Amino acid sequence: MRTEIIGDATLYCGDSLEVLASLPPAVAHGIVTDSPYSSGGFTRGDRTADTGSKYQSSGLEKLFANFAGDNRDQRAYSYWSALWLGQALRITQEGAMLCTFTDWRQLPSTTDAVQAGGWVWRGIAVWDKLNGRPMPNRFRQSAEFIVWATNGAKDFDTKGASYHDGVFSIPSPPTVDREHSTQKPVVLLDKLVQVVQPGETVVDPFMGSGTTGVSCMNTGRKFIGIEITEHFFDVSCKRIEEAYRNRPRLFDPETEHPTLDL
Does residue 27 register a pLDDT over 90? Predict the structure, then answer.
């Protein structure tokens, strides 16, 4: 298993179930991830198509590399999700929050799997992509969903509380700025990683092109990322290293040593 350490980020190239099982208990303060949906159609044949065909417009199928783990049928997706969510629960501290993306097709299975994995399902946030394709005689599919949950009880006291939006109206990254066919905008992840405090650790078991890690570098969080596809692991390393080099800094006028601007 390949491992890279970049500043406060530890990155693993491997299968998420195996890597999660190797991590110590309670190492994380939160999980923020975009697991493969195994969606993109209504039939098994639709779902087993390559990700370039499922998630990219006609004529652009070869623009981004395919990614792994997105070809499970409905039962396999549900059972597999419960497995990784159970391992994710084990590595988080009590009260930690989970945020995992899904689409409308897999929303029911995802909320079931979250609970089967031992999490307390708390609700759903909405990512309004603003630029969903028009659908003739149908409603535009312009939203994806963020299922959120906690590891057991959560302190909801208003004193010193953090408040998070329930709807995020942020356009998808333009094609020219993407490294991955389902890449999420950095500004959206900048908001989601705030479910943990600066200096705490976020884990993303399905790192993809590394956007969660980029946001952790941007906002002063520690990061553990896992990605099975070597191509995207390399992309993640590059993007996270660049974000770490360019992270916001202040200078202490007395010592002239740079400190993180949190």
Answer: yes
Q: What is the CATH number of the domain that holds 120?
A: 3.40.50.150
Contact 23, 92 (CB under 8 A): no
Write phi, then psi, for 147 (nearest 5 degrees): -80, 125
Quote the tokens at residue 102: 């899904």
Is the CB of residue 202 less than 8 Å from the CB of residue 224?
Answer: yes
- pTM, rounded to two decimals: 0.83
pLDDT tens profile 144-160: 999 999 999 988 888 88
φ/ψ region of 130 (left if φ > 0, alpha if ψ in -120 to 50, else beta) reads left
Q: What was the pLDDT predicted at 131?
A: 81
Tell which residue, 206, 210, 236, 229, has the closest CA to residue 100. 206
Strands 249-251 and 9-13: unpaired
Counting Cα atoms < 13 Å in the Cβ hemisphere of 69 gives 19
Residue 6 has pLDDT above 90, yes or no: yes
Rounded CA separation 132/126 (Å): 14
Q: Which residue has the tokens 């603003």?
A: 130
The three-state secondary structure class of 61 is coil
Is there a contact between 40 and 253 (Cβ–Cβ < 8 Å)?
no
Tokens at 85, concatenated: 């969510």
How many domains in the chain?
A: 1
Domain range for 103 is: 2-260
- Chain position carrying tokens 């009260």: 95
pLDDT digits (tens, 9 = 90+) for 207-219: 999 999 999 999 9
Say if residue 253's pLDDT is above 50. Answer: no
